[in-house]
Structures are given as structure tokens and as C-alpha cells.
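Entry 12.
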Amino acid sequence: MNSARIAPIAESVPYSRVRAIAEIAMTMEKVYPLYFGESNLPTPEFIKRALDKAVRDGFTYYTSNAGLMSLREMIARHYAEKHQVKLDPSTEVLVTASGVQALNVAIRCVLDPGDEAIVLTPAWPNGASMASLIGAKPIEISQPLVGNRFTIDFAAMEAAVTPRTKLLIYTSPSNPLGWVATVEEQQQLLEFARRHGLWLLADEVYERLTYGMDYAPSILRLVKPDDAVFVVQSFSKAYCMTGWRLGWVAGRKDLVRRATELNEFLVSCPAGFTQKAGEAALEWGEGFVAQLKEQLKANRDYCVGVLSQVEGVRIPEPEGAFYLFPSISGLTDSFAFAKSCLLETHVGIAPGVAFGLGGEGSIRICYAADRSILEPAMERLCAYISNFPR
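Predicted 3D structure (C-alpha cells):
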């Protein structure tokens, strides 16, 4: 028998427990899917038309590893207009084939095997898992709930730093918490990274989806040219383009340069016609984003209202993104809970344990669905929680 085997480093990374629930759901009929981080709204027509035109215009060949200059210029303009940040599109912006790939290529630039990365959790697990795939070690620091708002445990972060620590990862607006870092909290994170000589990675994918503000402040507002800071972004959430796989990295020139070079060995470049669709999203998408935010806020308020009436549920009101992360008293196995909820009620939710330290005992609900899906799903979910044995 051939003795070849799967590499231990590949075997060591656990499969996504959100995907594990979704794979079961995809074998069932008439499921209310609230597990993935996406709206069931279609991609806007003006973006689809831009892609059709780009195909007819011949954007079907390789582009630069960094992406089309026209798209990088529009991304730089986005930061100038929204955050008063000046970026050089030729040296400080890299277009990627999704936010996931942005994380992947950027993390590869700053971690070696044996290094450590501090990750604020609960968080979307891909950042920590990518560190593990490199042979680095993610060190999870849970964000405590103080009153009705999640915060940052800087004392725990200080205690976690070792000579091997090279990277700090945080997400704002947060998936799954809905927490949005204040400018003061961002300044503290930046000073922490400076003091310990760390790279600082800000996942700002949900930047446009906030409540009570037009958009979440970018960490790039605070950085100096030599700060070891970079952000990852995506077109997926604000423009309902999850399946289009288009994102970007923005940050210090040396990281963007090397990430651009490494892009050749991962995807070479995103599809040219998809990049042109991204240009249309940035150019013409403001009205759509405003409409989407209005719908999301109404969905958030509805879900918070019904869940708040269920005994044993504690639910902080999200400041951004489109998730609820309620804790359920007595819940010790959120994966088993999510699985049985799916099988018994046909409502698909994500288990809190999938999001790392601090996640167990909670569930994640994506409220970006249309009301025709959301309302019956929440009715069934609330009944299921009410009957959960404690």
C-alpha cells in the first residue's frame, strides 16, 4: 500500500463548524438558512450589467497581479472620500479574489512557522485557521461582554505576548458579535501593536454596514506611513456579491508589494470582468447600500425584539454587520444545539463554538434574510429555545 499521506499541518486545522451545519442543511428540503453570512437579496442589476459589458469589452484576460489599476484607483478614492485617508493605488492597494484570499495572502507575508498571532474572539475562524495552516499558533483572547457592549481585554492581551508573537488580528464591525471598535479602542490597539512590534490586521469587511453611523471608522485613519498595519476588505457583504469572490488588501507598501508577488502563486489575479463589476459597485452603489442598511436595521430590531422575550436569552444589540450572537442560559454544546435545531425545526443557525474562545454557550443568527424567511425562522427558533431543557 502506498504510504503517502495527507500533511499533518493540513490535518491539524479543524473543518469549519458553520460549514458542517450548512452541509447537513443542503441535503434537506425547505430549510430556513440563517447560518451563512449573506443576504438572500440578489446582486444589484447595475453590477450584473457592468460584468456583462466587461465580458463583451474583452476583460477576459489576465490582469496585473495587483488587479486593474482603474479598480485600485477607485478603492483609493473610497478611502479618501469616506475616511480622509490617502492611499497610493500603485503601491498600497492589492485586489484579491475575495476577502478570504486577502486574509490568506496577507497573513502569509507576516507569519512564519512557530510564530504566534493574537486573535480577538469570538471571531470568524478563517484568520486563526490560516495562521494554523502556515504552522503558526493562534492565541485567542475573548472579548468580554460588559453591560450591553463587548469590549477588549487589554490585560489578557498583554499577558499573551511572547517573543514569538508577530501579529494581532481584530474584526470591526465584528462577525459574529456586531461590535464596532471606537476610535479610542482602535488607538489603543494600534499603540499595543507599536509597543510590542506587531503587525496589526484589521478585518473591515462590514465597514459599510453600521447602525447610527454612515460607516465604521477605518484603522487606516490613525496610522503613520511606517506603522505595520493592513486591512482586508470585500465586496461581498455591502453589495450582495458573496459568490463573486472579490476583495482587497490595503496597507503598508512592503506588505502590499510582497502580497502582490505572492498573489501569482495563489490565484494570479481575480477575473478582469469581476473587477469591472467591483468598479460599478463602488461608483454607483451608495443608494443600494443605504437601502440595504435600512432593511438590515429593521430586521435587527425585529429579531432583537422577539428574542428578548424568550426566557434565558441574553442578546446585546449589534452596532454593525448583520448578526445576532445571543447567549442561552444552560447551553454547553452549541454545535449539538444547532444540529438538533436544524433537524427538528429546519432552521439553520451557526453554533457559537465555531467562532472560538468565548463563543460556546451562544449561537449566531444572520438576520440579512428576507422577512419571508426571517419571520417564520425566528418563530420556530424562539419556540425551540423556549423548550430547550435547562
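Annotation: The mean pLDDT is 96. Residues 79 and 85 are 5 Å apart (CA to CA).
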